[in-house]
Amino acid sequence: MPRTAPPGHTPRFTAYSARFPQGTDAFVFAQYGCQAPSREEAERGAAGLATLFTGPDGPDLVDRGTFYDTAGTHNVTLLAYWYDPNGHRRWRESEAVRAAWDGLPTQGPAGYWREESVIPVERNETLHTHRREDYATSGLSQSGALELPETQVHDYWGAARDRIAASATEALEPAMPAFEPQDPGTQATRGRRVSVDVPGNVALIRTAQDWSASTLYRETYLADVKPVKDRGVDFLAENAGSGCIAARNLTEESADGVPLDRACTIAWFASLEHLMTWCRSHRTHLDIYASFFQMVGGGEGPLDVAFWHEVSVLPSGSVTAEYVNCDPRTGFLPLAARSTTPTA
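Above: the chain's sequence. Below: its structure in token form.
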């Protein structure tokens, strides 16, 4: 596929993109969550899930966040990364993990869900406004095993696609050209275990903001940029016509549940093109874009709020999505469930 950078393009600011160690073909990003009517119930459920992330094959990194979903339910989510998919497979197939997941109750106030992605490196891209040495943050690139060199492939529409190596030779066409969710009233997902066949070439984004070390831009970001970003995420979560399957606006927390001065959005799109179309042409994202550049153009000094994102396009068979006693609007449940196991 042709690159899309304008001739002679020079980015307006410096940015960095992750580089994996030589020989790395894929990594794993897994979301494990508990949803419940109250924060306390969701925290108890998530605490049980967190005990699974131990042992020699446990994840290399675990972040944590909370959000309210479109049903108004509180979710506590664990965001786990494995740099070795084989380690993740051993972990998932271990007796302790299998027994714990299979033993989750299908009745009661709490629901549990997992979305695990084995991501080929050539189908992933990242972008950071700051070097890891200058602004420690969450996500895939926090590990010192990854380099974070400067990139010139940014600051133009289509740059994210250009940073995905596979896009040079693959069209990345979606197996599901349009997202047409089922009416949640027709799906009996409470009291059941439901696994969903995820279509090929769905796009996953985790995009984050960290103002923990900010002194110059903190107030401007929180007053003028964050509310615009939050409205954009709300739009995605509530409007299937955008091609967004699920959007989660997380407040990041420490391992013991203390809120941090950082946040992230995690969203699934029917395809990379759906994500890029929203970014380059929908009013909600253009407002985010404008508010960011208005902030950085204010002249206060070097930007000291860190922004980064990870975007992946997932091949068929690389995503596992399973939901236990969950609201029908959770994650991939609005898609037709190909495999369901009723309550015993």
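The longest strand covers residues 26-36.
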